[in-house]
Design brief:
By secondary structure, the chain is mainly β. It is built from no helices and eleven strands. Helix content is 0%, strand content 46%. The relative contact order is 0.32.
């Protein structure tokens, strides 16, 4: 059974930075498209970022372009989400996700996700 465990969330002031990590176990990490979603209170879970199996292709939501990046280390079975210039509207629970069906970063949607992490809270104060 694949397990995804996020870490790195917390409370930060607007303009600050955080790096989220997601460690995977129990599966073939290098064969998964990986990504991040977030869910703010009262809102639907939304796409944030995705990265292809090799890391050669990435995709970011328009709302985070220029501030967030996504990377992965297949040797460590870990995907990262460095977040800079954080805004109060970035406040949400951030979820790591894996697609095991060979979809690429541009096909990474909630409906394609096979495995979810438990989420990590990011709170940005103004």
């Amino acid at each position: 059974q694949v397990k995804l465990v996020e870490s790195g969330g917390g409370l930060v002031q607007a303009g600050g930075s955080l790096i989220l990590s997601c460690a995977a176990s129990g599966g073939a990490f290098s064969s998964y498209t990986m990504g991040w979603f977030r869910q703010a209170p009262g809102k639907e879970r939304e796409f944030v970022a995705a990265i292809s199996r090799t890391g050669g292709t990435t995709r970011l939501a328009d709302s985070v372009k220029g501030r967030f990046t996504i990377s992965r280390d297949n040797a460590k079975s870990t995907v990262y989400l460095p977040m800079n210039s954080l805004k109060p509207e970035d406040t949400a629970v951030y979820y790591c996700a894996a697609d095991a069906d060979y979809s690429g970063a541009y096909s990474f949607t909630k409906s394609n996700v096979d495995y979810w992490g438990q989420g990590t809270q990011v709170t940005v104060s103004s």
